Amino acid sequence: MSLVNRWRARVALRSVRGRPAARIICSGGAVRGTTAEGDLLARYLRRGLGWSGPIEVERRSRSTWENVANIVPALGDAEWLLFASGSLHAEKARAYLRRQRPDLVHLMVPGADHRWGEMAVGKPLFAAVGLWKLARLRCST
Fold this sequence. Notes:
The protein has five helices and two strands, in the order H-E-H-E-H-H-H. The protein is mainly α and 141 residues long.
């Protein structure tokens, strides 16, 4: 599993701590290889990070747009929703939710996606790419 996906799993875990009835939805299809990213994330959350709470896995998504669209049916009667990823990637997912399902925007809560010193080498690159993608997203509105 990639370093970025392990980071996303850690963000998810620390974001749900202390939240009642937390359930993690791991979303993503097979991108590199034959195992879906959702399965890799779920496995790491269980075996690598010791999460014992409920997990659902979505295995079809091939993009962030599809991740957002494909997790909506799994939300059920959720009281809150957060996107666990890097800050700018999570913002992109929130923007997609606003476009796809504005009726669910009230469920969004912030995640614990930033921690000083974490991924210090990669964050400048993630920030540059994320800002570029968000700018493109805003131009397509």
